[in-house]
Write a structure and sequence with these properties.
Elements (H helix, E strand, L loop, with lengths): L3 E8 L4 E6 L10 E5 L5 E5 L3 E10 L10 E3 L5 E6 L6 E4 L4 E4 L5 H5 L8 E6 L10 H16 L4 E5 L5 H11 E3 L4 E4 L12 H14 L5 E6 L6 E6 L3 E3 L8 E3 L6 E4 L4 E4 L11 E2 L7 E5 L6 H9 L4 E6 L10 H9 L3 E6 L12 H9 L2 E2 L5 H14 L5 H6 L20
Parallel strand pairs: 7-10, 7-11, 11-13, 13-14, 21-22, 22-23, 23-24
Antiparallel strand pairs: 1-2, 1-5, 2-3, 3-4, 6-10, 8-9, 12-20, 14-15, 15-18, 16-17, 18-19
Length: 424
């Protein structure tokens, strides 16, 4: 494990810069000092313009071999960090240019030593997966591990996760845990931790601050609140969606406001939601079914797609329909066949904002008559997750009512037209 030193650079310009001096690599310029600043950025300074470098001492390392758990007791309340993989702990393999997930939890204490100023921290690697490889069985493993850490006295649990399906996993934990002693905070990054523009450092720090100090006890997701630094939004796990491929503020709350805002410089959290679940006991069910499916309707969709899913043994099907929740006439016989065979068929909308209403047009009423379950303003991804959870925990005849019942903020009472952003 390499040694890191905190330094103060006195520049010819008269400016003084303090940060962690990063070691040189085979690809570093010998004429540049690279320093990680407090805000998380790695910045290069020409050695010829540095009048003096003051050594402030070695940065304590929590060195551990890949796959091991690690903890640092600072006398503050405990926050557990569960690593599952993704960009947030990834590094570029420069011979190929590819990004690989790391399995070393000790990297956290090197990358973000500030977390020990917020809480006592316990880090454990549960798995090392990119988020596109996550499955319902992985959600079950996450829930069990989260429950284990709360059982060990954690006041909050941070889950590091790839961003592409992180909102699926945050929704899964929202349904798995009926009651929590503290927040579950999912966190990721858009850019790997060794890139100068990485958002990993501030996202992790913001997530730990939220886990340690938030009054709410829900599954949440914490990421940059703007393209610039300094502000982290904490979103409700069932009302958040990834909206951009590369922006650092890619995650947006849909149809509601974020639960809280974290100022990483002042280490403070401000609750912005009008209501939330308070901290309580620990009650959960870590069961999810792999017999749920999510399918997006498109013009000309072949009815045999529905038939094939039923033949594959799917027991719950969420359709992402148009507008109010419609599909083409040619699909109706296949939907009826699915329902008659015991498949729960539910309808969400492709529009993201607004809500399903199957009473407005004839097609909607036809779908209702076939037994299709309308899901109001539940996001399609969340509807799929809830279907997976409901199939695993309730009898088939109970599932439609469970889907329609708000359990974790996934359904709002009404759609606020002023909440539509118009643009990102």
């Amino acid at each position: 494990m390499e040694s890191y030193r905190r330094v103060k650079l006195h520049l010819d310009s008269g400016d003084v810069v303090e940060g962690i001096l990063l070691p040189s690599t085979a690809y570093s310029s010998p004429d540049v000092y690279v320093v990680k600043l407090r805000n998380g950025y790695n910045v290069g300074f020409a050695r010829g313009k540095v009048r003096r470098m003051e050594d402030l001492g070695e940065v304590p390392s929590a060195g551990a071999r890949p796959g091991e758990s690690r903890e640092v007791d600072t006398g503050r309340p405990w926050v557990s960090i569960v690593a599952t993989g993704g960009t947030i702990l990834s590094r570029v393999e420069y011979t190929t240019g590819a990004v690989y997930p790391s399995t070393d939890p000790a990297l956290l204490f090197e990358m973000v030593p500030e977390i020990s100023e917020v809480a006592s921290v316990r880090v454990e690697t549960l798995m090392s997966k990119f988020s596109e490889d996550m499955t319902p069985s992985d959600w079950a493993a996450m829930a069990e591990k989260i429950a284990e850490h709360f059982g060990r006295g954690a006041v909050g649990v941070v889950v590091m996760h790839g961003t592409d399906t992180m909102h699926y996993s945050s929704a899964a934990m929202a349904f798995a845990f009926k009651e929590l002693p503290g927040p579950v905070v999912f966190v990721g990054s858009q850019r790997s931790s060794d890139r100068p523009s990485s958002d990993a450092f501030q996202n992790i720090l913001g997530a730990v601050i939220a886990a340690a100090s938030a009054p709410f006890a829900e599954s949440t997701l914490a990421m940059h609140g703007a393209s610039g630094d300094g502000r982290i939004y904490v979103h409700r796990g069932t009302r958040v969606r990834k909206m951009h491929t590369s922006r650092r503020d890619t995650f947006q709350s849909v149809g509601t406001e974020p639960l809280a805002e974290v100022d990483v410089e002042s280490r403070s959290l401000k609750v912005t939601a009008g209501s939330y679940k308070a901290r309580g006991g620990l009650s959960y069910s870590a069961k999810f079914s792999d017999k749920a499916a999510l399918v997006k309707f498109y013009p000309g969709m072949d009815p045999r797609i529905m038939d094939a899913l039923v033949e594959l043994g799917i027991r719950g099907l969420v359709i992402e329909g148009t507008g109010f929740g419609h599909v083409r006439d040619a699909l109706l016989p296949s939907i009826k066949k699915a329902v008659d065979s015991g498949v729960v068929v539910a309808m969400a909308s492709q529009t993201i904002y607004g809500r399903v209403d199957l009473y407005v047009y004839r097609r909607g009423r036809e779908l209702l008559s076939l037994g299709v379950v309308p899901l109001d303003d539940m996001l399609p991804e969340v509807a799929y997750v809830k279907m997976s959870w409901a199939l695993a925990n309730f009898r088939r005849e109970e599932v439609p009512a469970v889907l329609r019942t708000p359990l974790a903020g996934e359904i709002t009472q009404r759609s606020d037209p002023t909440g539509f952003p118009g643009r990102l």
